[in-house]
Write a structure and sequence with these properties.
The chain folds into two domains: 2-122, 3-Layer(aba) Sandwich (Rossmann fold), CATH 3.40.50.720; 124-319 and 345-355, Dihydrodipicolinate Reductase, domain 2. The chain is built from twelve helices and 13 strands. The chain has helices at residues 11-20, 36-45, 55-62, 76-85, 100-113, 127-137, 160-167, 186-195, 211-215, 286-307, 315-329, 338-355; strands at residues 2-7, 26-32, 51-52, 66-69, 89-92, 117-119, 147-153, 202-208, 224-230, 236-242, 250-255, 260-264, 269-273. The strands form two sheets. The protein has a seven-stranded mixed sheet with strand order 8-9-10-7-11-12-13. Strands 3-2-1-4-5-6 form a six-stranded parallel sheet, sandwiched between helices. Helix 8 (186-195) packs across helix 12 (338-355). The longest helix has 22 residues, at 286-307.
């Protein structure tokens, strides 16, 4: 039986608790939040026996095997360090840490102590992302990716999070080095990091405040970002982040030397792009028929997942947690390679340096929970 604890009891913690309780052989033995009432309420909702207002007694008395850290990023490093030193494996919500320095320290500590860690970029484990990964591993691209494109959009809706972000100049997300971007782009960047060769790619980034936000009197939050990357061997990538593009895409494309793949995270479809062209006028008709067949196939595949109750919003989180726990209990590889976690941090550092955010977080503003979930 794996004993699991959750540190940080805002709304995002609920999705963790519900997915942990779906997995056989796991028990949530404690919740923890600096605002103890939040820890108590989470414990009551999920029938957890113990709750804590401080981390030390949770680690000392509960002795968890795994700790899920669902606090704002400013506190990830310190909480992660304490948990690893106490002998706990850690699952850290995205972004993994404030910067690559903190990321590298936690990875090194995990290696030294023989413990496992992962980051909550669970979109990499949705049904369509897992299918793409298998096709690439099976050689569908015909070699190393030539070019990668990741688009990750964000909508300023009428949520409590958006109102707080725009209305509070001291909101915790604004104190991150990358501001709003820091808390939102890691899903899209992590997808690139999985397939971009090398450790330190070249990065060219341009970010700006959209006219939409300027009309609202907001001149600090950068909500438009365009990035060009080049990894080892000449593989290139584009990353686009936008709050204004419509439709609001969460799309990923990988172009190989023989064939290519594209998937849509929201609609959960994956399309194979045939590298070889048909002869003459067949090129004007046969590809459309092939695309139609694939879209229909996606419809029935999604329907089967829905009927199997594996098509819920947190399906990716469920599969990521399962694979992470399997790496602990069975010695399987960690679901997200440490190289990818570190590369994601390095790319984000380079972006924030170039676009001139780098607003340092204030330690006295450090909090232990995400009061509102940000749109994923």
């Amino acid at each position: 039986m794996l004993k699991v604890a959750i540190v940080g009891c805002g709304k995002i913690a609920d999705s963790h608790a519900s997915q942990i309780q779906r997995i056989p052989g796991c028990e949530i033995i404690g919740t923890c939040d600096r605002e103890e009432l939040m820890a108590k309420q989470l414990a009551e909702r999920f029938r957890v026996k113990r709750f804590y207002g401080h981390l030390d007694p949770l680690l000392r008395e509960g002795q968890p095997d795994v700790v899920h850290i669902t606090t704002p990023p400013q506190s990830h490093y310190e909480i992660g360090r304490q948990c690893l030193e106490a002998g706990c494996h850690i699952y850290v919500e995205k972004p993994f840490a404030i910067d690559a320095v903190e990321t590298e320290k936690l990875i090194s500590l995990a290696d030294r102590t023989g413990l496992r860690l992962t980051v909550g970029t669970d979109e990499q484990f949705s049904a369509v992302a897992r299918r793409m990964r298998k096709l690439i591993r099976d050689g569908y691209l015909g070699g190393t990716p030539v070019h990668i494109e990741s688009t990750w959009c964000y909508e300023f809706g009428d949520s409590a999070y958006t109102k707080a972000l725009l209305g509070d100049k001291q909101h915790w997300a604004r104190t991150l080095p990358g501001g709003l971007l820091h808390n939102t782009i890691s899903h899209g960047i992590a997808k690139i990091a999985e397939y971009l060769p090398g450790e330190s790619p070249q990065v060219i980034a341009h970010g700006f405040v959209s006219p939409f936000l300027k009309q609202l009197g907001e001149n600090e939050i950068i909500d438009e970002l365009r990035v060009i990357l080049q990894g080892e061997g000449g593989t290139t990538a584009y990353f686009t982040f936008s709050s204004q593009m419509r439709p609001s895409l969460h799309e990923f494309r990988v172009y190989g030397p023989e064939n290519s793949l594209v998937f849509d995270e929201d609609q959960q479809w994956l399309i194979k792009l045939r590298g070889e062209r048909f002869k003459s006028y067949a090129e004007k008709f046969l590809p459309q028929a092939g695309f139609a067949k694939q879209y229909v196939g996606s419809f029935f595949r999604n329907a089967r997942l829905f009927l199997a109750r594996d098509f819920h919003m947190n399906s990716g989180k469920k599969h990521l947690i399962e694979e992470f726990y399997r790496s602990i209990t069975d010695g399987a590889p960690v679901p997200i390679a440490y190289r990818e976690i570190l590369l994601t941090s390095r790319i984000m550092d380079a972006i924030f340096t170039q676009i001139g955010t780098q607003a340092p977080f204030s330690p006295e503003r450090e909090v232990w929970r995400k009061d509102e979930p940000s749109p994923e």
